[in-house]
Amino acid sequence: MTDLIASAPARATASGAASGAKLRAAGFAAAGLLVFLLVWEVVPRLGLFNPLMLPGPSGIPAAFWSELKSGAWGSAVGSSLGHYTIGLALGALLGVVFGVATGMSRLAEEATAWIVRVLRPIPGLAWVPFAIIWFGVNRTAAVFIIAIGVFWIVFFAAHGAVRSVERDLIEVADAFGFRRWHERLLKILLPAALPGILVGLRTALGQAWMAVVAAEIFGVPGLGQRMMQASSLLATELVVVYMLTMAALYGLLDSAFVALQNWLLRWKA
Amino acid sequence: MESVIDIRSLSLAFERDGHRTLVLDSLDLSIERGAFIAIVGASGVGKSTLLRVLIGLAKASAGEITLSTHSGKRQPLALVFQDARLLPWRRVVDNVSFGLEGGGLSRAERRSKSLDALRIVGLVDLADRWPHQLSGGQRQRVALARALAVEPEVMLMDEPFSALDAITREGLQDELVRIWRLTGKTILFVTHDIEEAIYLADRVVVLAGAPGRLAADHRIDTPRPRTRSAEGNADVVASVRRHLGAEKLIDGAAI
């Protein structure tokens, strides 16, 4: 009885302290952001910096609103997300297929060892010249650049994940008579490798986003291209609008992916 | 009595770095249908290897194994490993139905068979849990249910309780005897624990030496339910100890 009486307020204080700490952290975060915005606003106003070179935050909502009304923002976002999704899906699919195949088969791994060693260090952007020669400056070229970057990340993640699946689990499949390669793949290897593959996919998600912007700066329609147009007209507020748009879209995609990942891996301790 | 497995001059050698190590040497063993047979021996004597050969995880170098199981069974044998080896991404009931997949049963049929197996091991209430939510003993029960679910004629058990604490282990031993009497399955139970072997089995087979050979074969006639004291089987205990002890001397001499 005394225990109950004694522990109840103690628990209340503990949880009160925890929520107090959270509140304080949120307060400091908001204050930090406010100071940042304030400095950003004040510096060009004081004439320390040409407002054309560094537009203050107060002008940005208006720039965003007019860009939104004209429909340019929507079509740029739509276009970027379009080749982002296709490139990501293509690169991820090929990465998983080849990664799993080389993870499962020694022969496949040995046969591709030198091809991988030569092609892998080439940065994704170094493919831009060929992308333009083969496809022209268009969506296909962008998809190609994005897919290549994603491919390598997912390929290595899938390869490593399949390689490190415990032999003990594969034996379970063997002991219950599932010995054909596709039975092993579907019943053991893929589910066991899923956590590792998802880590690779999440990295690829960010990498692909950078490739989107890079491809568009070369002229493929989308956020990057619109940003470059704005910059050449010295519409710097608009440049900032697109920079923030990229950050927001990436943040959104990443949180959505993490939610999906947590659901897929809900069996983990 | 009719035998369900007949092992004739079974030998098995491992090849490693050009060295050939003989693990089992011309082993003869008949497993009668419905028997509960314990195989005891020191670690490394080839007890587990014998089970792995029977289930097809290892290949014999020489000898013959004859299965007289009923025809048309997809899975005449099932193995329970030392560790449960549940698939962590499957819920308990889906772990149990693992061996039923590919057997032409519908999803609903598989589930109902799996729930039956879980009922036998007393875990039907945990059917929808994830393996990580179970205790070690519960996990081993699920592994037992997974083997039972395929309705094998012979259950091969590889030191299935050795990783559990004493109380859980004793509980599961009693459970296993109950299940054995309930289902009438043949059980081949590998252990290094003499008391466990005598408590559980009708027949205790001793493997000893390097390579492992059949050293002794004792019948345990103690009526069931049994007590845990091995008195009344003191001769068996002595014989097994002698074989295990002799093996230690050989090991010592070899080193």
Short description:
The complex is a heterodimer of chains A (269) and B (255). Chain A has 269 residues and is mainly alpha-helical.
How does this structure look, described?
The complex is a heterodimer of chains A (269) and B (255). In chain A, helix 2 crosses helix 10. Chain A folds into 2 domains: 39 residues; 208 residues, MetI-like (MetI-like fold, Orthogonal Bundle), CATH 1.10.3720. Chain A is an all-alpha fold and 269 residues long. The two termini of chain A are 35 Å apart. With 255 residues, chain B is of the alpha/beta class. In chain B, helix 3 packs across helix 4. Chain B is globular. The C terminus of chain B is likely disordered. Classes of the chains: A mainly alpha (269), B alpha/beta (255). At the A-B interface, helix 7 and helix 8 of A face loops of B.
Task: Tag the structure with descriptive keywords.
heterodimer, A: 269 residues, mainly alpha, MetI-like fold, 2 domains, 10 helices, 0% strand, flat, B: 255 residues, Rossmann fold, three-stranded antiparallel β-sheet, 7 helices, 9 strands, disordered C terminus
Question: Helical stretch count of chain A?
Answer: 10
The residue-averaged pLDDT of chain A reads 90
| Most extensive chain-chain interface | A-B, 19 and 23 residues
Instruction: Report on the biggest sheet of chain B.
Output: 6 strands, mixed
Count of discrete alpha- or pi-helical segments spanning 4 or more residues of chain B: 7
Q: What fold name stands as the CATH topology of the largest domain in chain B?
A: Rossmann fold
Q: Helix-strand pattern of chain A, N to C?
A: HHHHHHHHHH
Gyration radius over CA of chain A:
25 Å
Number of strands of chain A: 0
Q: Which stretches of chain B are poorly predicted, pLDDT < 50 over at least 5 residues?
A: 249-255
The percent range for helix content of chain B is 25-40%
The helix content of chain A is over 70%
Class based on secondary structure composition and strand pairing of chain A: mainly alpha
